[in-house]
Specification:
By secondary structure, the protein is an alpha+beta fold. It has three helices and five strands.
Length: 117
Amino acid sequence: MSASQSCLFCRIVAGELHAERVYEDDRVVAFRDINPQAPVHLLVIPRKHLVSLGEAEAEDAGLLGHLLLCGRELARQEGILERGYRTVINTNREAGQTVFHLHVHVLGGRFLGWPPG
């Protein structure tokens, strides 16, 4: 079984696993996190399997920008654009990455302190 066949997020992209999708297009899928850390906690993932930001290449620059712009649009849709929101990309275990498919967290709806953790 390939990494993308066993990847939780690849299975969500393929429709094999349920997620509460809030947006999708030909490059990304966005859905609500099942363990939200804020009133709004969405994940934006590329359809292309990339393990982490650390493995992205120059050819992925357009996709990476699209992930962030989708995050901004989702913040607008969720009513947190003006109040404030945070985008987070955890890269590898020590940074808190638990699903090894690149994803952007979009968090908001409450005051988010700094430093984050």
